[in-house]
Amino acid sequence: MGRNLLQAKKACPVSFEFLDYTIITSQCKGPQYTANSCCPAFKEFACPYVDALNDLSNNCVETMFSYINQRGNYSAGLFASLCRDDKQGLICPATAPTQSANSSSGSQIVRNPSVLLVLTTVLLVVVLRLF
């Protein structure tokens, strides 16, 4: 069964309006936005909230990008077009002890394939609202 695009979403459990966006705005500067400067900053900001951002039943992605774009005056879709680790999405380092328990070095990588899907969806929604 497909997802209804007009389906009501739950409120985001993360208060993105109160977060500090300095990590992004201090490193990702125009007019030439580069993946080397923008993507590490974006991941440092977004990865702690990866579970909430991957939950398509809430409005976290829309809320987060709204505040990122507002605070940094970025164009819609900038991070979706720049930031990809591989075709499965962004890779966030493991932070919880249970995620790295099987790794002897503690540096296990957790892949989040839904992040690319979420970013692409946000870009599509923004473009559709322009028309």
Automatic annotation (TrEMBL):
Q: Where is the GPI-anchored protein LLG1-like domain?
A: 14-90
Looking up InterPro entries in the UniProt record yields: LLG1-like, LORELEI-like
**Membrane-spanning intervals of the chain:** none
Xref: Pfam families: LLG1
Q: Which PANTHER family match?
A: GPI-ANCHORED PROTEIN LLG1 (PTHR31533:SF2), GPI-ANCHORED PROTEIN LLG1-RELATED-RELATED (PTHR31533)
- Name this polypeptide is given: GPI-anchored protein LLG1-like domain-containing protein
Q: Which organism is it from?
A: Camellia sinensis
